Amino acid sequence: MTEPHSSPKPFDHLFVSQLNELFRWRRDVRRFQTRPIDESLLTELIYSCLNAPSVGNSQPWRFVVVKDQRARHAVCKNFEKSNDLAALANADDSKEHYKKLKLAGLKEAPVHLAVYCDKNPVEGKGLGRQSMPETLEYSVVLAIGQLWYSALAHGIGLGWVSILDPDEINATLDTPDNWRLIAYLCMGYPEEQHSDPELVRENWQGPTDYDTKLFYR
Amino acid sequence: MTEPHSSPKPFDHLFVSQLNELFRWRRDVRRFQTRPIDESLLTELIYSCLNAPSVGNSQPWRFVVVKDQRARHAVCKNFEKSNDLAALANADDSKEHYKKLKLAGLKEAPVHLAVYCDKNPVEGKGLGRQSMPETLEYSVVLAIGQLWYSALAHGIGLGWVSILDPDEINATLDTPDNWRLIAYLCMGYPEEQHSDPELVRENWQGPTDYDTKLFYR
Fold first, then answer.
1. Does residue A71 contact residue A172 with C-beta atoms inside 8 Å?
2. How far away is chain A from the Cα of B109, in angstroms, using its nearest Cα?
3. pTM of the predicted model, to two decimals?
């Protein structure tokens, strides 16, 4: 209560329009250059999302930079196996199309980043998550979003790989039992950039009708 | 594949520093002015997050603007009941402190926005969520993050109320069975703005040691 009354400098029209451009170009990247990300920039990017929103200010995010080549290789194998299984789940007329899609850039991406949720963080003393405990995991997702925007503002792309067996990832990375895998991310300079989703460009789906998303009560 | 090779205009240092300012001032707001949000601005803000990341481009977010006064009143009661229950769960030496915290601005906030996840969206044909189905809910969380930043860029604050019984909210809003409540949000012009978390200002917790969040494998 000692902070003087204060407020940020108002954000002007130029900033708002640049922010919308950032959102528009913020795509899931699956084609990376092999050019490395400077180590200090990577740390800066991860630090830039540590003030993300979290339930009861619990800050349950734990970031694991995966450098070990055997671990990275195991994650690539994990993806291939999970992706073969996922292909089978498609309708017959979609199976071949599915197999042609490039759904991850794990091999090329210079940075692998596993993001975990600590299920019992000390920060915030459990406040705010009695009735909707899943907000703890959601907090980690909010930090990942913030990282995504920060990275793109520095010209770095991010791809979220969800086609993985999470238990196997935990074993590969030997993570604590009370951590839950939220996301496995690839990061690097993109080979190409787009303002539309790859799945639309590849005719997996049509463009979206935004009118179907908003309701009133 | 017909889009010409393209890329966004690089984001300059000024934008990066403004983006970091946006993140720094992006706080959970619980004290709102009663001044309304212009209807067209609210729609613009919601639309500005519809290109958020989503698993398999499933876009499962469903936004419900809650205008009905009886529904809003029921949500306030829901919070009060849930908050009384949550207070009991605190250690004895924290109970009184907990009760003094202001954890929601539901009564004053001009806008109530419930955000749902459609558990069976048609978009994307189920791609990407066989092995980690929770990424569907996570997609909605990413959209909420994007809304939060957009809102603040327009001077509008957002508060995420997690101390609620979600089943009761669904009944109050009469939502479809295949929708899951992800978040109940308050929006409005903030009475005051801060760059540090309220729970730290109120001595509920200390400042965070960022070094405890980053690991290497």
1. yes
2. 16
3. 0.95
Closest residue, chain A, to B123 (C-alpha): A205
Give me the phi and psi of A187, to 5 degrees please. Answer: -135, 145
List, for residues B164-210, the tens digit of each pLDDT value: 999 999 999 999 999 999 999 999 999 988 888 888 888 888 888 77
- Condensed to tens digits (0 to 9), the pLDDT of residues A86-120 reads 999 888 888 889 999 888 899 999 999 999 999 99
Bridge partners of B158, per DSSP, are B28, B187
Name the residue in chain A with its Cα closest to that of B29: A53
Cα–Cα distance measured from residue A59 to residue A36, given in angstroms and rounded to the nearest whole number = 28
Query: In a mutagenesis test of the A interface, which of B138, B152, B212 is the best target, namely the one with the most A β-carbons within 10 Å?
Result: B138
d(CA A98, CA A93): 9
Q: Is A159's pLDDT higher than 60?
A: yes
Q: State the ipTM, two decimals.
A: 0.95
Strand boundaries in chain A, DSSP class E: 61-66, 111-118, 157-161, 179-188, 214-216
User: Which residue among B24, B56, B213 places its CB closest to the CB of A63?
Assistant: B213
Going from N- to C-terminal start, the domains of chain A cover 29-204
Q: Which residue in B has a C-alpha nearest to residue A20's C-alpha? A: B48
Could you tell me the CATH superfamily of domain B35-192? NADH Oxidase (3.40.109.10)
- Choose the mutation target among A49, A137, A141 for the interface with B, i.e. most B CBs under 10 Å: A141
Give CATH for domain A29-204.
3.40.109.10
Calpha distance B75→B166 (Å, rounded): 10
